[in-house]
């Protein structure tokens, strides 16, 4: 039935209608598509569910030749290709799970011009035989999915991704589009650089998901708290993310004993078991999925009404991606993070034991996550400022906004800190900055001549711990930022100029006025 004639239009919207059945593009999609069609290398940052796929698929359909899609998740390739087939688009994948006969057939189809999109894993792409094959193809485009994997600043670094720069070397005239749902500033820069992109156009869609409520609860009596939360949301679907495989199973069992339709999912299960529970979840036969982070990638369930983190994630990128699985239909959905110091300690232990090359970075990312949980300013502002996006007003849809802390005008404190940071040329980390502000006569201060700068001692009225606390608050709201690539030096953040030069006020919370975590007030009628 799909045998209708191919479109000849040069209007991307016609393709959106014909192949996807949608009437109009979401913000940015069309600009991105036009950028790619014009032959410019393009970087796309769009949250999960934002609609990245059409940004390379429509150009792939419109341009002559084959679009090679690099995707790290072999398990998802099949689903993606099947979804394309359902839309009447010719696509295939090549990976190590196929027999060589299957692979040869696909290669023959591609050479015969029967395939518009060819999905490959990075390992496969980098093999020599693959290169010989690619050289015979007419290539329309390279699409690098999950492009943050290329950066060691990212949260999901995959070394094989770093070799993708060979694509530009061998195919300098093929346009490259890189797509990701999570990337902080350094990761973004890294993506363009490591792919050897040529003056790329960068599109950053808003990461704001106002329909997701944000709440942090103390990590005590978690089970009772979960039962209470679930009872408030009967007949809704949601995910409870746990740290260990074992705890997904035990939590699911305990919930079943209480009469909930709960299941579990983790990477230790067989592929068959996993696809079975996943299917049940999609069909609402399981309402509550107790899962490790293995669950969720590529699962397109629009009516997930809540996401609970039984344990704190390791970094803000992961947290954001995981809560982003809720409310994809745009309806109000709730997210709850249980936070305890024990979890942080467990991570630190695990990290230090594994001793990865980027241990310092991972610990710093963990600390940012902890600061989010500890924060007493609008949590959404913290999340967005992490992705260098400014939310001008507190969101009104997080627990802090609903239970505001007592604040005071901390503008002078912010200005002192910023001024010292600039005079120190944005080169010193937090503790040293505090020493300078407090007029310490430590070796490090004196040896570097920091006692000579104008703001030396300007913050002597505050204790060391108070400064630490305020600086963390200033980082959280984007007045200051941490340069992970420069030994964690503190730098002026996106709001820094506003505070220094444009009279922007900063509200701070005194450390004593900040409860560690605030439990939601029960709603009174
Ligand atoms: P991402 O890859 O960014 O997570 P997808 O490309 O999978 O997101 O798109 C998420 C959902 O949004 C899909 O169901 C997709 O069909 C839908 N979608 C994409 N573009 C549009 C559009 N212009 N109008 C309506 N729905 C869209
Ligand atoms: Zn808020």
Automatic annotation (TrEMBL):
Residues 33-201 form the Helicase ATP-binding domain. It is an enzyme of class 5 (isomerase). The keyword rRNA-binding does not apply. GO terms for molecular function: 3'-5' DNA helicase activity; ATP binding; DNA binding; four-way junction helicase activity; hydrolase activity; metal ion binding. Its EC number is 5.6.2.4. Keywords: ATP-binding, Coiled coil, DNA damage, DNA recombination, DNA repair, DNA-binding, Helicase, Hydrolase, Isomerase, Metal-binding, Nucleotide-binding, Zinc. Its cofactor is Mg(2+); Zn(2+). One of its GO terms (biological process) is SOS response. One of its GO terms (cellular component) is bacterial nucleoid. Residues 222-367 form the Helicase C-terminal domain. The keyword Isomerase applies. It catalyses: Couples ATP hydrolysis with the unwinding of duplex DNA by translocating in the 3'-5' direction. Belongs to the helicase family. RecQ subfamily. This is DNA helicase RecQ. It comes from Arsenicibacter rosenii. The chain holds residues 1 to 525 of 710 of the full protein.
